[in-house]
Design brief:
Elements (H helix, E strand, L loop, with lengths): L1 H7 L3 H17 L1 H9 L2 H7 L6 H16 L6 H11 L5 H17 L1
Helix pairs in contact: 1-2, 2-3, 2-5, 4-6, 5-7
Length: 109
Amino acid sequence: MLQDIFLKADNRELQAEVLNRMFKIFSCHLENKKLCQQIRTVPLFILNMAGFPPSVEDILLKILEYAVTVVNCVPEQELLSLCCLLQQPISSELKHTILSFFVKLFSFD
């Protein structure tokens, strides 16, 4: 349901609120992350990240960072989506943000 709200919302503030709520759902319990991963919500959002404002991009990356650093799991689908996004024609700022994110993940462990 949150995925539908996010995709249909014309308001960036509403999209950011949806992502913040998803982050809270993920952080409440490990099983919540696994359930959301099965429906591929976050990878879908990542593939469309080039059209989002930096605040929404930051929340998406925060969700991934949480999965890696706190939950200690490798979100393969999400990371593959980031790699696919890097291969598309996107702004240099977004490329820099994504590459900086990967550097942060590599330095974590």
